[in-house]
Design brief:
The structure is a single chain. This protein starts with a helix and ends with a helix. 34% of the residues are buried. The chain is built from 14 helices and no strands. It is globular. The longest helix is centred in the middle third of the chain and has 26 residues. The chain is mostly helical. Helices cover 73% and strands 0% of the residues.
Length: 307
């Protein structure tokens, strides 16, 4: 059925206006995507922390990372259309990656945190204690506290939302132009900077500096996992959720005095492991040859979709 001439002209004009609006986003998709991720999350983070003249409910703050989900999906649609969105979401279905990568995703951060706690105990001469963790503050002292670990992990995997942005949208576009190590460090700086609202008013310079160092090392480890699992976002989500869950149940709460030396130990261990991974797998790909070629081809396809 043909549209009336007047409606057809209106349709063409609206389409032209929409293309004019979206043109800058298509021209600078990486910068636009990152700005949108920050714009959809920083106000919520700042408001919940009492740094804006309005407050947001805790339930909204729990799903802060879903602002990144919205930004990643929207920018993927703008730059690659519906097919691009479907391809992005399908990367959550990449699960046949070998048991060793599940072991890395689920076990590396708990192991690193336990080693850091042990080293900190040697440094201070005090035994390792778990009575001041966020889990204890949130759930209370309970003999059944470990029963909350799996439910918290599953909730964190669903509620966090960050990985579709950092590893789903940003990393492939940076990988298209840089080696895996350089791309990981670039994403790490962006990822670390995203946490800034939690460390202002008053500004926790030392703590934020440690966050930036750790984020750089974390990003290398995430890129290593990503490049060796054919770009699996499922494994990235599990890795992120395992790290956050381990921090919640093992590490002292942020307000506990004397926490910064422990954070420095953790950041140092993460960087040390990231350096070992780089030496073992190579800075160009952080991956064995076969998987690296697949990841590099995918990154090239993303890069071509940007043009």
């Amino acid at each position: 059925m043909r549209l009336p001439a007047r409606l057809y002209i209106l349709y063409i004009k609206e389409g032209a206006q929409m293309n004019t609006i979206l043109a800058p986003l298509r021209r600078y998709p990486l910068a636009a995507g990152i700005i949108l991720m920050f714009a959809l999350t920083w106000p919520i983070d700042l408001a919940y922390g009492g740094r804006l003249p309005f407050r947001v409910p805790f339930a909204l703050y729990l799903f802060l990372g879903w602002g990144i989900v919205v930004a990643a999906l929207f920018m993927t649609w703008v730059t690659a259309g519906r097919a691009g969105v479907v391809a992005l979401l399908r990367r959550f279905l990449i699960w046949r990656v070998g048991w060793r990568w599940y072991a890395v995703a689920l076990g590396l951060y708990p192991a690193l945190f336990l080693v850091a706690l042990g080293l900190n105990a040697v440094r201070t001469g005090a035994p390792v204690a778990f009575d001041q963790t966020m889990a204890v503050r949130f759930f209370g002292q309970s003999a059944g506290l470990l029963l909350f670990v799996v439910p918290f992990f599953l909730f964190e995997a669903i509620a966090n939302g960050e990985e579709i942005g950092w590893r789903g949208y940003v990393l492939p576009r940076v990988l298209a132009r840089h080696s895996a190590l350089v791309a990981a460090l670039i994403v790490g700086v962006i990822w670390g900077a995203w946490h800034l609202p939690k460390y202002i008013n008053p500004f926790g310079g030392v703590a934020f500096g440690l966050v930036m160092v750790k984020a750089a090392g974390d990003s290398v480890l995430f890129t290593w996992l990503y490049n060796n699992t054919r770009g699996s976002l499922l494994l990235a989500v599990l890795f992120h959720a395992a790290g956050n869950t381990a921090g919640f149940f093992l590490l002292p709460a942020p307000e506990v005095a004397g926490r910064e030396p422990l954070l420095a130990l953790i950041a140092g261990l993460v960087v040390l492991v990231a350096a070992a991974v780089t030496l073992a797998f190579g800075p160009e790909r952080l991956s064995r040859a076969e998987n690296a070629r697949t990841s590099r081809t995918d990154a090239g396809d993303v890069h071509r979709s940007m043009l």
